[in-house]
Amino acid sequence: MQEGEEEIEEVTEIEEFEVTIPAKALREVERMISMGKSGSSVTLKFDENQVIFELGKQRLTSRKLEGQYPAYQQLLPNQFTNQINVDRKKFLGAVERIAVLADQKNNILKCTIDSVNQEISLSVDAQDVGSGRESMAAQISSDEPEEIAFNVKYLIEGLKAIPSASEISIQLNTATTPVVLNPLGGFQMTYLIMPVQLRS
User: Which residue numbers delimit the DNA polymerase III beta sliding clamp C-terminal domain (predicted)?
Assistant: First the structure.
């Protein structure tokens, strides 16, 4: 990020466009918005190399990232065979507790899905360190897959990316295909996470 008073041509109406901005800059914009007055609007200005966000008297200038953003839409399945609804805070808390052990062994967290008892279990088996397991209630629509594994760091990032949702849905098909996290109610967003393939 850089600060300055560079002049950028202002455009009031533009056609649809795409721009890739560093995540660090967007987190700073999010902080600006959270500290600003409710209902305040953000002004976006950009040229070939940089973007400027303005909110009240605050101004943030960031460089644009070169190249096209990955076509993640192509990874999203058209439909899912299983949906798990779970309390976000409770699930995040369980994942973070288990993560203490997961950090010792490749950051892998295994989820066991029990549709009969409507329960999801998180487990880690770290050699020479110990094992951990925690279960919690969930609304589960299907019994497939019975097991799926994630890199715990990416899972925590996804759960923290939707902080205002009290409940989330975890949509999946198989233990090796993309999984999508969505908030239930409120704003709409999609967090895509790839499972880790378990070795038999």
Answer: 74-196
Specify the pLDDT at position 3.
Answer: 44
Comparing 104 with 88, which gets the higher pLDDT?
A: 88
pLDDT at 187: 72
| Both structure tokens of 101 | 């052990």
- Residues sharing a CB contact under 8 Å with residue 14, sequence separation 6 or more, in sequence order: none
Question: What whole-number distance in Å separates Cα of residue 106 and Cα of residue 152?
Answer: 9
Task: Mark whether 180 and 150 lie in a shared domain.
Answer: yes
pLDDT of residue 179: 94
Question: Distance (Å, rounded) from C-alpha 105 to C-alpha 196?
Answer: 13
Provide the number of structural domains found in the chain.
2
Say how far apart CA 81 and CA 195 lie, in whole Å: 16
* 68 within a domain of the structure (yes/no): no
* Predicted pLDDT at 12: 55
What's residue 8's pLDDT? 46
Instruction: Copy the structure tokens of residue 6.
Output: 């560079």
- Spatial separation of the C-alpha atoms in residues 200 and 31, rounded to whole Å: 44
- 8 assigned to some structural domain: no
Range of the structural domain that residue 138 is part of: 73-196
The phi, psi pair for 148, rounded to 5°, reads: -150, 150
Residues 135, 190 within the same domain: yes
Quick one: which of 186, 195, 152, 184 has its CA closest to 88?
A: 184
